[in-house]
Amino acid sequence: MKKLFTIASLFALALSACSQEDVKSEEKGEGRVTISCVATTDVDDTRANVSCTTPTVEDFTLTIDGVDHTYNAHYATIAEFNEGDNYLHNGRFEATVNAGDVTVEGYDKAAFVGSAMFDVAARQNTDVAITATIANALVKVVVTDAFKAYFAEGHSLMLTTALGNEFDVTAQTEPIFIAPGKFTISGTATKQPNQSGAEATVVTLPDYVNNDAQAQTLYTVKFDVENAGSAQLTITLNETLVESIDIEQELNDNAQ
């Protein structure tokens, strides 16, 4: 009988504590909030998934800002908020999650960011689900077999980012993750000599410049050579032609 009384007493105390907590939150105009997060590797333009290391929920930091009032709080992990005093005063908020550093550029250097608006009401539980997307722009440079055949003595291509980082993309196979903004692709290519003993002709390729690369977007820049009466160097971005140059008339002026 004593054991039953003890269990009943503990149950009553627990109910009392919950009731006091609810009353306390109601008096303060607070509601409980729970944050969850998933990461996606979808990118725009191709709607394909890219291959990169995906962060776990433990890798994300969390920032909560008031939208219609002054409030700011930062948490090293989402769990720190969920498992702590996760009550917020009634009002509108924005939660932002981050993983990785977008200024650290390179292969498999993806950073992720996501945000969501939510409203808090007194004595109400609010579940906030956030989808984090790739915060970088992605660049992949390809050359066609026709390009390689025309410039049979080889070529060299360099990607320069807005942060000043340079990457050799002569034989790139995977996209490079860069900070959004400007990037430039420059290089040279060497034509096969027309006759025995002649020096190979080295030409400076026209720079491809993108001034506004966006996050979560893959930019595939392709160099090709088309023969339609005369050799034409073409540069396409995501299969859209951005430049066409007569190699014989224009590029040879840059011969080194």
Descriptive report:
The protein is mainly beta. The chain has two domains: 105 residues, no CATH class; 118 residues, no CATH class. The chain is built from three helices and 17 strands. Strands 3-2-5-7-8-1-4 form a seven-stranded mixed beta sheet. A hairpin with a 1-residue loop joins β15 and β16. The longest helix has 27 residues. The termini are far apart.
Features:
256 residues, mainly beta, 2 domains, seven-stranded mixed beta sheet, six-stranded mixed beta sheet, 3 helices, disordered N terminus
In short:
By secondary structure, the chain is mainly beta. It has 2 domains: 30-134, no CATH class; 137-254, no CATH class.
Layout of helices and strands, plus pairs?
Elements: H1 2-28, E1 30-39, E2 61-66, E3 72-75, H2 78-82, E4 87-89, E5 91-99, E6 106-107, E7 112-120, E8 125-134, E9 137-143, H3 145-150, E10 155-161, E11 166-168, E12 176-178, E13 181-191, E14 201-213, E15 217-228, E16 230-237, E17 240-246
Q: Proportion of β residues?
A: over 45%
DSSP strand count = 17
Helix content: 10-25%
What is the averaged pLDDT score? Answer: 87
Domain tally: 2
Give the H and E element order. HEEEHEEEEEEHEEEEEEEE
Label the structural class: mainly beta
Strand order of the largest sheet: 3-2-5-7-8-1-4
Oligomeric grouping of the chains: single chain
Overall, the morphology is: rod-shaped
Give the end-to-end Cα distance, rounded to a whole number of Å: 100 Å
Largest sheet: 7 strands, mixed
| Spans of at least 5 consecutive residues with low confidence | 1-21
Number of H- or I-type helical stretches:
3
The whole-angstrom Rg is: 29 Å
